[in-house]
Design brief:
120 residues; alpha/beta; Rossmann fold; 4-stranded parallel sheet
Length: 120
């Protein structure tokens, strides 16, 4: 994969792989559940979502608990994180690429980016 920025190479490499260990656990899941329950309290008709920079899918896991059966998709630049995402959402819904290169072929009810924009 050819990158347009240093940040892409940084997150696709060892730092991004090491980040996996710091981005998981029950406390993070509980925090995400609380956040999304409040943020999406008035939202209706959320049947599909895509997360830009999903890492191992902790946000998607929370969304699936709040909206069972949601059609989740994710873009993740780090190959190991993308591999682990396949345990949360179907492998065909995991796009192992840069969000700068991703070209959507459909629309989703919810598009999510959380904690990623500072790295672009």
């Amino acid at each position: 994969m050819t990158f347009k920025s240093e940040q892409e190479a940084f997150w696709a490499g060892d730092f991004g792989t090491d980040y996996i260990q710091r981005n998981q656990g029950d406390a993070l899941l509980a925090s995400n559940l609380d956040f999304f329950a409040k943020a999406l309290r008035g939202a209706r008709g959320i049947n599909s979502c895509i997360e830009f920079g999903a890492n191992i899918g902790m946000n998607l896991k929370a969304l699936n608990l709040l909206h069972p059966g949601i059609d989740g998709h994710a873009i993740e630049i780090n190959a190991e994180a993308a591999r682990q995402l396949c345990a949360i959402i179907p492998p065909a819904h995991v796009y192992n690429t840069s969000i700068l290169e991703f070209a959507p072929t459909r629309q989703w009810d919810l598009t999510l980016i959380k904690g990623v924009l500072i790295h672009i």
